[in-house]
Amino acid sequence: MTIDLTALAAPDFWIGVGIVAGIYSIFSLGLQLNVGLTGILNFGQAGFMAVGAYAMAILILRFHWPAPVALAASAAIAMLAGVVIGAASLRLSGDYLAMATIAAAQLVSGVAQNAAPLTGGNQGLLGYDAAWTTLARWMLARLSAVGLGDQSQLPLFIVTWAIFGLALALLTGLRGTPWGRVLRAIREDEAAAAALGKNVFAYKLQSLAIAAGLAALAGDLLALNITLIYPQSFSADVTFIGFAVLVLGGLGSFAGVALGSVLLWSVLEAASFVRLPLAADKVAAVQMLIVGLVLIAVMVWRPEGLRGKREEMVLRG
User: Fold this and answer.
1) Where are the domains of the chain?
2) pTM of model > 0.85
3) Got the DSSP string for 1-57?
Protein backbone atom coordinates (compact mmCIF):
# COMPACT_ATOMS: atom_id res chain seq x y z
CA MET A 1 0.00 0.00 0.00
CA THR A 2 1.31 3.46 -0.94
CA ILE A 3 0.00 7.00 -0.62
CA ASP A 4 0.30 9.67 -3.30
CA LEU A 5 1.69 12.37 -1.01
CA THR A 6 2.28 14.88 -3.81
CA ALA A 7 -1.38 14.99 -4.79
CA LEU A 8 -2.46 14.82 -1.16
CA ALA A 9 -0.41 17.91 -0.30
CA ALA A 10 -1.72 20.04 -3.17
CA PRO A 11 -3.44 23.24 -1.93
CA ASP A 12 -6.24 23.03 -4.49
CA PHE A 13 -7.14 19.56 -3.19
CA TRP A 14 -7.61 20.81 0.36
CA ILE A 15 -9.49 23.89 -0.80
CA GLY A 16 -11.88 21.57 -2.64
CA VAL A 17 -12.26 19.43 0.49
CA GLY A 18 -12.86 22.58 2.52
CA ILE A 19 -15.65 23.71 0.21
CA VAL A 20 -17.51 20.40 0.46
CA ALA A 21 -16.93 20.26 4.22
CA GLY A 22 -18.26 23.81 4.56
CA ILE A 23 -21.36 23.01 2.51
CA TYR A 24 -22.11 19.99 4.68
CA SER A 25 -21.43 22.05 7.79
CA ILE A 26 -24.18 24.50 6.79
CA PHE A 27 -26.44 21.58 5.83
CA SER A 28 -25.80 19.85 9.17
CA LEU A 29 -26.43 23.01 11.21
CA GLY A 30 -30.08 22.58 10.24
CA LEU A 31 -30.02 18.94 11.28
CA GLN A 32 -28.40 19.91 14.57
CA LEU A 33 -31.17 22.42 15.20
CA ASN A 34 -33.79 19.75 14.51
CA VAL A 35 -32.21 16.65 16.03
CA GLY A 36 -29.79 17.96 18.64
CA LEU A 37 -31.79 20.91 19.95
CA THR A 38 -35.48 20.18 19.24
CA GLY A 39 -35.57 16.39 19.08
CA ILE A 40 -37.09 16.21 15.58
CA LEU A 41 -36.01 13.23 13.47
CA ASN A 42 -35.74 14.99 10.13
CA PHE A 43 -34.62 12.59 7.38
CA GLY A 44 -35.79 14.86 4.57
CA GLN A 45 -33.09 17.54 4.75
CA ALA A 46 -31.74 16.59 1.31
CA GLY A 47 -35.16 17.42 -0.14
CA PHE A 48 -34.96 20.99 1.19
CA MET A 49 -31.44 21.21 -0.21
CA ALA A 50 -32.81 20.28 -3.63
CA VAL A 51 -35.66 22.80 -3.33
CA GLY A 52 -33.15 25.58 -2.66
CA ALA A 53 -30.77 24.67 -5.50
CA TYR A 54 -33.51 24.19 -8.08
CA ALA A 55 -35.36 27.33 -6.99
CA MET A 56 -32.21 29.44 -7.40
CA ALA A 57 -31.39 27.96 -10.82
CA ILE A 58 -34.95 28.19 -12.15
CA LEU A 59 -35.39 31.79 -11.01
CA ILE A 60 -32.15 32.74 -12.75
CA LEU A 61 -32.57 30.71 -15.95
CA ARG A 62 -36.32 30.76 -16.53
CA PHE A 63 -37.35 34.07 -14.94
CA HIS A 64 -34.08 36.02 -15.29
CA TRP A 65 -33.95 37.15 -11.67
CA PRO A 66 -30.70 38.72 -10.41
CA ALA A 67 -28.55 36.07 -8.73
CA PRO A 68 -28.53 37.64 -5.22
CA VAL A 69 -32.33 37.97 -5.24
CA ALA A 70 -32.70 34.40 -6.50
CA LEU A 71 -30.37 33.17 -3.74
CA ALA A 72 -32.44 34.85 -1.01
CA ALA A 73 -35.71 33.75 -2.61
CA SER A 74 -34.53 30.13 -2.78
CA ALA A 75 -34.01 30.07 0.99
CA ALA A 76 -37.46 31.61 1.53
CA ILE A 77 -39.06 29.05 -0.79
CA ALA A 78 -37.37 26.19 1.05
CA MET A 79 -38.54 27.59 4.39
CA LEU A 80 -42.09 27.75 3.00
CA ALA A 81 -41.73 24.14 1.87
CA GLY A 82 -40.58 23.29 5.40
CA VAL A 83 -43.70 24.90 6.84
CA VAL A 84 -45.96 23.01 4.41
CA ILE A 85 -44.30 19.66 5.05
CA GLY A 86 -44.08 20.31 8.77
CA ALA A 87 -47.77 21.21 8.98
CA ALA A 88 -48.58 17.81 7.51
CA SER A 89 -46.07 15.71 9.44
CA LEU A 90 -44.96 17.27 12.73
CA ARG A 91 -47.98 15.97 14.63
CA LEU A 92 -46.45 12.54 14.09
CA SER A 93 -43.63 11.35 16.31
CA GLY A 94 -40.66 9.03 16.28
CA ASP A 95 -40.40 6.60 13.37
CA TYR A 96 -43.59 7.92 11.74
CA LEU A 97 -42.16 11.44 11.52
CA ALA A 98 -38.90 10.07 10.10
CA MET A 99 -40.79 8.15 7.41
CA ALA A 100 -42.89 11.19 6.54
CA THR A 101 -39.80 13.38 6.04
CA ILE A 102 -38.15 10.67 3.91
CA ALA A 103 -41.30 10.53 1.76
CA ALA A 104 -41.25 14.32 1.36
CA ALA A 105 -37.64 14.22 0.14
CA GLN A 106 -38.52 11.47 -2.34
CA LEU A 107 -41.43 13.57 -3.58
CA VAL A 108 -39.08 16.47 -4.30
CA SER A 109 -36.72 14.12 -6.16
CA GLY A 110 -39.59 12.73 -8.22
CA VAL A 111 -40.75 16.19 -9.22
CA ALA A 112 -37.19 17.16 -10.20
CA GLN A 113 -36.90 14.09 -12.41
CA ASN A 114 -40.27 14.39 -14.14
CA ALA A 115 -40.81 18.14 -14.52
CA ALA A 116 -38.20 18.27 -17.27
CA PRO A 117 -39.36 21.52 -18.97
CA LEU A 118 -38.75 23.33 -15.69
CA THR A 119 -35.99 21.34 -13.97
CA GLY A 120 -34.18 19.74 -16.90
CA GLY A 121 -35.06 16.26 -15.64
CA ASN A 122 -32.17 13.82 -15.33
CA GLN A 123 -30.07 15.94 -17.70
CA GLY A 124 -30.07 18.75 -15.16
CA LEU A 125 -29.64 22.51 -15.39
CA LEU A 126 -26.59 24.46 -16.57
CA GLY A 127 -25.64 28.10 -16.91
CA TYR A 128 -27.14 29.48 -13.70
CA ASP A 129 -23.70 30.38 -12.30
CA ALA A 130 -22.68 33.12 -14.76
CA ALA A 131 -23.01 35.90 -12.18
CA TRP A 132 -21.06 33.89 -9.62
CA THR A 133 -18.27 33.20 -12.15
CA THR A 134 -17.88 36.94 -12.73
CA LEU A 135 -17.80 37.66 -8.98
CA ALA A 136 -15.36 34.82 -8.34
CA ARG A 137 -12.95 36.14 -10.97
CA TRP A 138 -13.08 39.58 -9.36
CA MET A 139 -12.45 38.10 -5.89
CA LEU A 140 -9.61 35.97 -7.22
CA ALA A 141 -7.95 39.00 -8.79
CA ARG A 142 -8.15 40.89 -5.49
CA LEU A 143 -6.82 37.88 -3.53
CA SER A 144 -3.94 37.40 -5.96
CA ALA A 145 -3.06 41.09 -5.75
CA VAL A 146 -2.48 40.82 -1.99
CA GLY A 147 -0.60 37.52 -2.26
CA LEU A 148 -3.29 35.18 -0.92
CA GLY A 149 -2.99 32.66 -3.73
CA ASP A 150 -4.49 32.04 -7.13
CA GLN A 151 -6.45 28.80 -6.68
CA SER A 152 -9.66 29.11 -8.70
CA GLN A 153 -11.85 27.61 -5.96
CA LEU A 154 -10.63 29.94 -3.22
CA PRO A 155 -13.50 32.49 -3.59
CA LEU A 156 -16.14 29.79 -3.11
CA PHE A 157 -14.20 28.45 -0.12
CA ILE A 158 -14.24 31.90 1.50
CA VAL A 159 -17.93 32.53 0.77
CA THR A 160 -18.96 29.08 2.02
CA TRP A 161 -17.21 29.39 5.36
CA ALA A 162 -18.34 33.02 5.76
CA ILE A 163 -21.95 31.87 5.41
CA PHE A 164 -21.30 29.06 7.88
CA GLY A 165 -19.79 31.54 10.34
CA LEU A 166 -22.81 33.84 10.14
CA ALA A 167 -25.24 30.92 10.52
CA LEU A 168 -23.24 29.53 13.45
CA ALA A 169 -23.25 32.90 15.22
CA LEU A 170 -27.00 33.27 14.68
CA LEU A 171 -27.90 29.81 15.96
CA THR A 172 -25.50 30.02 18.90
CA GLY A 173 -27.12 33.30 19.90
CA LEU A 174 -30.64 31.92 19.49
CA ARG A 175 -29.79 28.90 21.61
CA GLY A 176 -29.37 31.08 24.68
CA THR A 177 -32.66 32.93 24.19
CA PRO A 178 -36.05 31.89 25.67
CA TRP A 179 -36.88 30.51 22.23
CA GLY A 180 -33.87 28.21 22.31
CA ARG A 181 -34.64 27.10 25.85
CA VAL A 182 -38.16 26.12 24.78
CA LEU A 183 -36.70 23.98 21.98
CA ARG A 184 -34.49 22.17 24.49
CA ALA A 185 -37.49 21.68 26.76
CA ILE A 186 -39.41 20.13 23.86
CA ARG A 187 -36.54 17.75 23.20
CA GLU A 188 -36.35 16.72 26.86
CA ASP A 189 -40.09 16.33 27.51
CA GLU A 190 -42.61 17.48 24.94
CA ALA A 191 -45.60 16.87 27.23
CA ALA A 192 -44.07 18.94 30.03
CA ALA A 193 -43.38 21.84 27.64
CA ALA A 194 -47.00 21.73 26.46
CA ALA A 195 -48.22 21.63 30.06
CA LEU A 196 -46.34 24.89 30.70
CA GLY A 197 -48.39 26.57 27.98
CA LYS A 198 -45.89 26.38 25.11
CA ASN A 199 -47.23 25.80 21.61
CA VAL A 200 -45.05 22.78 20.88
CA PHE A 201 -46.26 22.38 17.30
CA ALA A 202 -45.46 26.01 16.43
CA TYR A 203 -41.95 25.78 17.88
CA LYS A 204 -41.21 22.55 16.04
CA LEU A 205 -42.52 24.12 12.83
CA GLN A 206 -40.17 27.08 13.29
CA SER A 207 -37.23 24.73 13.89
CA LEU A 208 -37.98 22.77 10.73
CA ALA A 209 -38.41 25.94 8.63
CA ILE A 210 -35.05 27.36 9.74
CA ALA A 211 -33.35 24.02 9.04
CA ALA A 212 -34.93 24.02 5.56
CA GLY A 213 -33.54 27.51 4.90
CA LEU A 214 -30.04 26.39 5.91
CA ALA A 215 -30.35 23.32 3.66
CA ALA A 216 -31.35 25.61 0.78
CA LEU A 217 -28.23 27.76 1.26
CA ALA A 218 -26.12 24.60 1.31
CA GLY A 219 -27.87 23.47 -1.89
CA ASP A 220 -27.15 26.80 -3.57
CA LEU A 221 -23.46 26.53 -2.71
CA LEU A 222 -23.34 22.90 -3.85
CA ALA A 223 -24.91 23.98 -7.16
CA LEU A 224 -22.19 26.61 -7.62
CA ASN A 225 -19.50 24.05 -6.78
CA ILE A 226 -20.61 21.30 -9.18
CA THR A 227 -21.96 23.74 -11.86
CA LEU A 228 -24.69 21.24 -12.79
CA ILE A 229 -27.92 20.53 -10.90
CA TYR A 230 -29.48 17.10 -11.37
CA PRO A 231 -31.68 14.97 -9.05
CA GLN A 232 -28.98 12.47 -8.07
CA SER A 233 -27.03 15.27 -6.38
CA PHE A 234 -29.65 15.33 -3.62
CA SER A 235 -30.17 11.63 -2.89
CA ALA A 236 -30.98 10.26 0.55
CA ASP A 237 -27.24 9.63 1.01
CA VAL A 238 -26.79 13.37 1.51
CA THR A 239 -28.99 13.36 4.63
CA PHE A 240 -27.28 10.28 6.02
CA ILE A 241 -23.87 11.92 5.56
CA GLY A 242 -25.30 14.87 7.48
CA PHE A 243 -26.24 12.53 10.33
CA ALA A 244 -22.71 11.08 10.29
CA VAL A 245 -21.42 14.63 10.67
CA LEU A 246 -23.73 15.11 13.67
CA VAL A 247 -22.52 11.95 15.36
CA LEU A 248 -18.87 12.81 14.77
CA GLY A 249 -19.22 16.43 15.85
CA GLY A 250 -21.52 15.69 18.79
CA LEU A 251 -25.26 16.06 19.26
CA GLY A 252 -26.23 19.49 20.56
CA SER A 253 -23.00 21.21 19.45
CA PHE A 254 -23.35 23.69 16.59
CA ALA A 255 -19.59 24.23 16.40
CA GLY A 256 -19.11 20.47 16.42
CA VAL A 257 -20.72 20.04 13.00
CA ALA A 258 -17.79 21.88 11.39
CA LEU A 259 -15.25 19.59 13.09
CA GLY A 260 -17.27 16.52 12.18
CA SER A 261 -17.66 17.61 8.56
CA VAL A 262 -13.98 18.50 8.12
CA LEU A 263 -12.91 15.17 9.64
CA LEU A 264 -15.36 13.12 7.58
CA TRP A 265 -14.56 14.72 4.23
CA SER A 266 -10.82 14.86 4.86
CA VAL A 267 -10.77 11.12 5.50
CA LEU A 268 -13.13 10.35 2.60
CA GLU A 269 -11.16 12.37 0.06
CA ALA A 270 -7.70 11.46 1.37
CA ALA A 271 -8.59 7.77 1.11
CA SER A 272 -8.80 8.18 -2.67
CA PHE A 273 -5.02 8.71 -2.74
CA VAL A 274 -4.27 5.38 -1.11
CA ARG A 275 -2.77 3.11 -3.79
CA LEU A 276 -3.41 -0.61 -3.31
CA PRO A 277 -2.12 -3.62 -5.31
CA LEU A 278 -5.66 -4.78 -6.03
CA ALA A 279 -8.05 -4.97 -8.94
CA ALA A 280 -9.76 -1.65 -9.70
CA ASP A 281 -13.18 -2.94 -8.66
CA LYS A 282 -11.87 -3.78 -5.17
CA VAL A 283 -9.92 -0.59 -4.48
CA ALA A 284 -12.99 1.55 -3.74
CA ALA A 285 -14.30 -1.02 -1.26
CA VAL A 286 -10.98 -1.13 0.60
CA GLN A 287 -10.79 2.66 0.65
CA MET A 288 -14.24 2.83 2.24
CA LEU A 289 -13.07 0.21 4.76
CA ILE A 290 -10.18 2.49 5.71
CA VAL A 291 -12.60 5.39 6.15
CA GLY A 292 -14.87 3.23 8.31
CA LEU A 293 -11.98 2.11 10.54
CA VAL A 294 -10.86 5.70 11.10
CA LEU A 295 -14.40 6.81 11.99
CA ILE A 296 -14.89 3.82 14.31
CA ALA A 297 -11.66 4.71 16.08
CA VAL A 298 -12.90 8.27 16.63
CA MET A 299 -16.22 7.02 18.03
CA VAL A 300 -14.47 4.59 20.38
CA TRP A 301 -12.27 7.40 21.64
CA ARG A 302 -15.07 9.99 21.81
CA PRO A 303 -18.50 8.27 21.74
CA GLU A 304 -20.20 11.60 22.42
CA GLY A 305 -18.50 13.18 19.40
CA LEU A 306 -15.68 15.69 19.11
CA ARG A 307 -17.59 18.53 20.77
CA GLY A 308 -20.61 16.71 22.21
CA LYS A 309 -21.68 15.98 25.76
CA ARG A 310 -22.76 12.58 27.01
CA GLU A 311 -26.06 13.95 28.28
CA GLU A 312 -26.94 15.01 24.73
CA MET A 313 -26.50 11.53 23.24
CA VAL A 314 -29.96 10.20 24.01
CA LEU A 315 -32.96 11.84 22.34
CA ARG A 316 -35.93 12.16 24.66
CA GLY A 317 -39.44 13.39 24.23
Assistant:
1) 2-312
2) yes
3) -EE-HHHHT-HHHHHHHHHHHHHHHHHHHHHIIIIIII------HHHHHHHHHHHHH
